[in-house]
Specification:
- This protein is an alpha+beta fold.
- It has 5 domains: about 100 residues, Zinc finger, CHC2-typedomain (DNA Primase, Chain A, Alpha-Beta Complex), CATH 3.90.580; about 130 residues, DNA primase DNAg catalytic core, N-terminal domain, CATH 3.90.980; about 110 residues, Dna Topoisomerase Vi A Subunit, Chain: A, domain 2, CATH 3.40.1360; about 60 residues; about 150 residues, DNAb Helicase, Chain A (Orthogonal Bundle).
- It is built from 25 helices and 18 strands.
- The strands form 5 sheets. The protein has a 5-stranded antiparallel β-sheet.
- Helix 24 runs antiparallel to helix 25.
- The radius of gyration is 26 Å and the shape is globular.
- It starts with a strand and ends with a helix.
């Protein structure tokens, strides 16, 4: 049975083992405000971006995202295991080491994870074998029509979910997996009995081309399924499970991990784009997992290459997603470029039309050049007033780029607007941004790299609201009941909330994260949000709660509207009543803002 040191003793060790003193033995630190700053020991840098918080007991690098407690730091610097680092610090600070306690819950969680990953692996094998069986003929025909060869099918482990209600479920149950395990990894779904309808157990994926989602360690963690014909949704992805969080991974992460010395990562929107580009010999291609790009995915990609190329579809939705992606990569200090596809094509369509050479010759636009190009679509350039407004907006953007790139953009803007270079330069000077006073005390690089929890002038979306609420709760200045578990749709953020609510310290919460990515996310959210005055904190809390609850109500309303289309009788009346209630709730929320 696995054992662990008592958590209350570990907390005492963290408090007694002075984190500033310990880290100072390896890294020169200088106090700035409440925290200490120095050059990060985990990556090369010339300007300090490594912060140590003595109050909260953890370190965080705004450059490489390294993070952890004093125990994690000793583990990294001395190449020790967790237990070895604990004993090392205990001896240094004269703390008797207690006996380890048995931890059956930890052992149970580990065994469960292994079982769930095993179920996914067997499902992937089943789907792949089905693809080459009579039941998989329609799916194989689809892949062949799209030009996918057998070698690429094997490379990605592509498969087919047959047009059967519960064939996979029955197959895996015969192998010894329980219904509960299959539900936990979202391979099986259950519709409970209601009125005269019996309980039904059915496969999540049916009559679809299957794309196993494999992490960098080669573990099958989830699936994506592409419908044939007009069935909706066209792409169905696994829900979040104990072994899968769609915010934290990318499709084809296993192939990225195997590559060495990539000069770029190419981020596309769809699984078929990844498959097609890879088959044509393009390296470093990946896609998000049925969701918009997240900060966690951006940090993951940053590990594999020095630059990311956004290669989204050429339609309006793809172009909008590019702008959002550029914002995320900028906040993460990850250099990005945009591949500009002509004729509204997506990457799969383009490379099949123009081939590898055509793809390699695509122009890679800088973020500023792309934004200026898109910005022009919002103004009537056939009118003097429209050209003037466009020039002001573009000048504000160009004030933030370096002089070399600005020169090229100036020539383009001058041609588009008819304004002289001198006038545009004067407008750019007027638009130059001032340093935020809320971050003026931070070292230069950290002030540039830190991601503001609530950027000025930007609307707060649901994810940002949840993350900001965690940062606010971590300050210890708010009552723990200002929010509820139901406000957090992100399962990981819900766990952070319940841990903080139940009194766990930020350092303990960071330390218990199982992966480097999770630890980095947790440490980032334990940073205090901008501001600090009581009135400002209250304003931020109110905005966060309002955004989370409004977004949740809107999501519930959309789900009810989808159900309404297929509902009948009493169920339809019940859904209509719930829609009326939610519509009124949303109206009341809007009136209170």
């Amino acid at each position: 049975m696995a054992g662990r040191y008592p958590e209350e003793w570990i907390e005492q060790l963290r408090q007694r083992a002075d984190i500033v003193q310990t880290i100072s033995a390896y890294v020169p630190l200088k106090k700035n405000g409440k925290d200490y700053w120095g050059l990060c020991p985990f990556h090369g840098e010339k300007t300090a971006s490594f912060s140590v918080s003595p109050d909260k007991g953890f370190y965080y690098c705004f450059g490489c995202k390294a993070s952890g407690t004093v125990i994690n730091f000793v583990m990294e610097m001395e190449r020790m295991t967790y237990s070895e680092a604990v004993v090392f610090l205990a001896n240094r600070y004269n703390m008797p080491v207690p006996e380890m306690r048995e931890d059956p819950n930890w052992q149970k969680r580990r065994e469960q994870r292994e079982r769930l990953l095993s179920a996914n692996r067997e499902a992937a094998r089943y789907f792949h074998e089905t693809l080459y069986s009579p039941a998989g003929e329609p799916m194989l025909a689809y892949l062949k029509k799209r030009g996918v060869d057998d070698a690429t099918i094997r490379k990605f482990g592509l498969g087919a979910a047959p047009d059967r209600w519960d064939q996979l479920t029955q197959h895996l149950r015969e192998m010894g997996y329980t219904e509960e395990e299959l539900r936990l990894v979202d391979l099986t779904r259950v519709k409970e009995a209601e009125e005269e309808k019996p309980r039904r157990v059915f496969d999540t994926f049916r009559s679809r081309v299957m794309f196993p989602i494999i992490n960098q360690h080669g573990e099958v963690i989830a699936f994506g399924g592409r419908a044939l014909g007009d069935e909706k949704p066209k792409y169905l992805n696994s829900s979040d499970t104990p072994v899968f969080n769609k915010r934290q991974g990318v499709y084809a992460a296993n192939l990225l991990y195997k590559e060495r010395s990539l000069r770029r990562v190419i981020l596309v929107e769809g699984y078929m784009d990844v498959v097609a580009l890879t088959q044509f010999g393009i390296k470093g291609v990946c896609a998000t997992l049925g969701t918009a790009l997240t900060e966690e995915q951006a940090r993951l990609l940053k590990r594999y290459a020095p630059t990311v190329y956004l290669a989204y579809d050429g339609d309006a939705a793809g172009q909008k997603a590019i702008l959002r992606g550029l914002d995320i990569f900028e906040r993460e200090q990850f250099p990005a470029r945009v591949l500009d596809f002509p004729d509204g094509l997506d990457p799969d369509e383009f490379i099949r039309r123009d081939g590898l050479e055509g793809f390699e010759n695509l122009p890679a636009l800088s973020p500023a050049a792309y934004r200026v190009r898109r910005m022009a679509d919002d103004y009537p350039l056939d009118r003097a007033e429209g050209r003037a407004d466009y020039a002001r907006a573009a000048a504000s953007l160009m004030a933030k780029v370096d002089p070399v790139e600005r020169e090229g953009l100036l020539k383009q803007l001058s041609l588009q607007t008819g304004l002289s270079r001198e006038v545009l330069l004067e407008q750019i000077a007027l638009s130059a941004p001032a340093q935020s006073p809320a971050r003026a005390h931070l070292p230069k690089r950290a002030a540039r790299q830190i991601r503001e929890s609530v950027p000025e002038g930007e609307p707060m979306d649901r994810t940002r609201a949840q993350e900001t609420m965690i940062s606010l709760l971590a300050t210890g200045q708010l009552p723990k009941d200002v929010a509820s578990e139901a406000d957090f749709e992100d399962s990981q953020l819900r766990e952070f909330y319940t841990a903080l609510r139940d009194g766990k310290s930020p350092a303990a919460l960071i330390e218990e994260q199982g992966s480097e990515a999770d630890r980095a996310r947790c440490a980032r959210l334990m940073q205090p949000p901008p501001g600090g005055e009581t009135d400002e904190l209250i304003r931020m809390v109110e905005e966060c709660v309002r955004t989370m609850r409004r977004s949740r109500a809107e999501e519930q309303l959309n789900q009810l509207k989808e159900r309404l289309a297929q509902a009948q009788g009493a169920e339809k009346a019940e859904i209509m009543g719930r829609i009326v209630e939610l519509t009124k709730t949303l109206k009341d929320m809007k009136n209170r803002t």
